[in-house]
Structure formats: structure tokens, C-alpha cells
């Protein structure tokens, strides 16, 4: 009896562990790399791993996301942003596959390294349409937003993130084949006179002419009576 109870407890713990860790796994992971260039005009861009956007499907069919940063990236990112912010021509770039985004290093310092990622996806094909990077919680930066002079970065500032996931679908493509076939049929009909209308002018437009004539006849009949 005790042996069976022991096995039941072990089995329950295993199932609980699987359920917990299974729920922690995302349905889809989108790798994100970053590059911080002290001079954006330098040309060559070298990227390093930043982390991954983890996308999960909600019960209502929408999607939510969270960001899992690469271990140790916070300190590296902080140092690189501080150094890059000294040059107004510097740029902070991110990429997710073939889509890119960028922002000012100074703005990320003003937000104390708080990132907001907005990702537009096609969940059925697991395709990323776009990714955008914003300084999270920063609502006003001023006209000199790329000037970090006087900006005080919190001593305990470290990388943090929020993710917004927008579900998008492909736009319908124009039915070019049907359109060309229709144009070809119309051209062919005109060439062979199938749609030519050889009726006289009156036969074509009698429905417009008759009301006008009737109105003129009635007006002419009423005018002499009014003069009497």
C-alpha cells in the first residue's frame, strides 16, 4: 500500500513538473540581435544576440509576447549605449530575421534601458512582418532627444522589456490573370464588332428624350392659359 502511494506521489510530481515547464515554453521564439554603432556612417554592421521574443497564443485567438534576454547582456548593453551616446551620429539597431528597427542610444538611456518591442506577425506561417523598438515609458524627450548631455542613468538600471504582438494577415493579391482575361475578351469583342450598337440616336436614348419632349409640350400648353 505504501509502495503504491509512493509511486502515485512521484507520478503526480512528474506530471506537475511537465505541466509547469510545458506552460513556460513558448509556442514560437523569434531571435533578436542588436548592434550599437558609434558612427552610423561607418558602413559595416556587426550584430550580437540580444535575446528572443517568445510568442504565445491566447484562448481568444490573439497573441501575447514576452522577451527572454541573453544572459549577461544587460551590462554589455549598458556600457555600449553609454559609449555610443557620446556621438550624436550613433545608432542602436535590432533585427529579427530579415526585418530591422533602430532608435537613438540616448533615448534608451533616458528610459533606463527599458525596451518596448512591437512585433507584427503572421501566426499561421510564423512569419515576422515587422519589429519596432521604442524606449518604454518615455513619453517626452524634447527636440534634442539625441543629446545625452546631463542625462542621469540610474545606478541600478538594467535591461528590461515589454512586448506587444500584433496579429496580421497577408493582404489579398490582385487577381491579375482574371483581369487580363477580361481585358482580352473585351478587346476581342470590339475587334469583331460583337458589342457594337448600330441603333440610331433616338433608338438608343429615347428614354431620355421622351420626358424632355413631354415636359416641353405640357409647358407650351400651360403658357397660353396663364397669359389669358
TrEMBL record:
Transmembrane segments: 205-223
Bilayer topology term: Single-pass type I membrane protein
Keywords: Endoplasmic reticulum, Membrane, Signal, Transmembrane, Transmembrane helix
GO-annotated cellular components: EMC complex
Chaperone is among the record's keywords: no
Predominant location category: endoplasmic reticulum
Region forming the signal peptide: 1-26
Protein localization: Endoplasmic reticulum membrane
Family to which this protein belongs: Belongs to the EMC10 family.
Protein name per its UniProtKB record: ER membrane protein complex subunit 10
Source organism of this protein record: Steinernema carpocapsae
Amino acid at each position: 500500500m505504501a509502495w503504491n502511494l509512493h509511486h502515485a506521489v512521484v507520478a503526480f510530481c512528474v506530471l506537475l513538473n511537465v505541466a509547469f515547464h510545458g506552460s513556460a515554453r513558448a509556442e514560437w521564439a523569434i531571435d533578436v540581435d542588436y548592434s550599437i554603432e558609434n558612427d552610423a556612417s561607418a558602413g559595416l554592421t556587426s550584430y550580437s544576440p540580444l535575446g528572443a521574443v517568445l510568442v504565445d497564443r491566447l484562448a481568444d485567438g490573439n497573441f501575447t509576447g514576452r522577451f527572454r534576454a541573453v544572459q549577461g547582456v544587460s551590462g554589455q548593453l549598458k556600457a555600449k549605449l553609454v559609449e555610443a551616446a557620446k556621438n550624436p551620429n550613433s545608432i542602436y539597431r535590432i533585427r529579427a530575421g530579415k526585418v530591422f528597427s533602430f532608435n537613438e542610444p540616448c533615448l534608451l538611456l533616458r528610459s533606463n534601458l527599458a525596451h518596448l518591442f512591437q512585433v507584427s506577425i503572421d501566426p499561421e506561417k510564423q512569419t515576422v512582418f515587422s519589429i519596432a523598438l521604442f524606449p518604454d515609458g518615455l513619453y517626452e524627450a524634447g527636440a534634442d532627444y539625441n543629446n545625452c548631455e546631463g542625462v542621469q542613468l540610474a545606478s541600478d538600471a538594467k535591461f528590461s522589456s515589454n512586448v506587444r504582438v500584433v496579429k496580421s494577415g497577408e493582404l489579398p493579391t490582385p487577381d491579375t490573370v482574371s483581369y487580363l482575361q477580361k481585358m482580352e475578351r473585351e478587346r476581342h469583342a470590339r475587334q469583331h464588332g460583337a458589342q457594337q450598337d448600330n441603333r440610331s440616336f433616338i433608338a438608343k436614348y429615347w428614354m431620355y428624350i421622351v420626358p424632355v419632349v413631354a415636359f416641353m409640350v405640357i409647358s407650351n400648353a400651360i403658357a397660353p392659359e396663364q397669359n389669358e
